[in-house]
Specification:
This protein is mainly alpha-helical and 372 residues long. It contains 11 helices and 9 strands. Helix 2 (22-44) packs antiparallel against helix 3 (50-76). The longest helix is centred in the middle third of the chain and has 33 residues, at 207-239. Residues 1-5 and 299-372 have low confidence and may be disordered.
Amino acid sequence: GGGWKMAPSNVLRCCQRVVGWIPVFFITLVACWSYYAYVVELCIFTIRSIGEKVIYLVVFHLSFVMFVWSYWKTIFTPPANPLKEFRLVNTDKEQYDREERPEAQQEILKRVAKDLPVYTRTANGAIRYCDRCQIIKPDRCHHCSACDMCVLKMDHHCPWVNNCVGFSNYKFFMLFLAYSLLYCLFIAATVLQYFIKFWTGDLPDNHAKFHVLFLFFVAAMFFISLLSLFSYHCWLVSKNRSTIEAFRAPMFRNGPDKNGFSLGFSKNLEQVYGDQGKYWLLPIFTSLGDGCSYPTRLVSQDPEQPSTINHTEPAKSIADGQSLPPRPLSESQNRLLGGTDQHWIDEGSDEESSKDLNQNAALDEESAKHST
């Protein structure tokens, strides 16, 4: 009986996997047709000038290779998952499962989370825990129902690449959008004069006419639709936000802050593209950090985590009786936080944050009195 019950769910999962590849298959077909239409029908059969043919073919193949390479990397780079440190050990897991009261479960999670670099909370101020994956979610990590896993710095699940776009492939996704735009723009711009000639009858009706006319329409249509998406994601990168964070600001100890992870324009770019400009335009992984912890612009100390300091806090604050982080920052984080241009820490922010902390403490005392 058990085997029979399992069969339908396996069949359903298999169908979902097949259906998931349909958009990718569609894009691949369009790309293959566009290659044939441009190289064979336009460059070989329609264009007369040898010089024009050569220039068009060289630039076309460059843009085509970069488009295909970045698309491939976006599709086949597996989403990054949280490190094993974020998983509950068996004793904590058993204790968590035994507890029926949410408050008691939260106490267990708080105890485990105090040794982890976790600064964001749920809307209710609770530790973010995934019951399905049985892990404490790192900052910016979310569970993807389509992939059935927790994905580091999840942006969205994209049907056009049949993959989750997150920490491991966000750079590839951005380059895929950029090279798709360039590919479509180049095709539309170079096909336009022949499109007009076919339309006005300057060129004879032949098998190339259909391909050239369609090539222009398809390239222009994709260019217009991609432009808005690419512009939106450029804005997100400049603000160091994911699509999820743009719709719902991350919740910190002191409340929601849509700019909580923003470090200033140049450092925000480096988070995605890396700190070596020569690799920015190549679909090679160069994003900074480990995907589990992120520098934040908040300099206020999280009172619930006495064993750690916020890793954007200037070094001088370590002397204020705070202990050092339990493990050293990764090399990429040190590079990210190093350098002289620390303009992203607001002037007077130390004073403001201490005022905020005092106000919060007073509010906490007041609410404690009322609750008793």
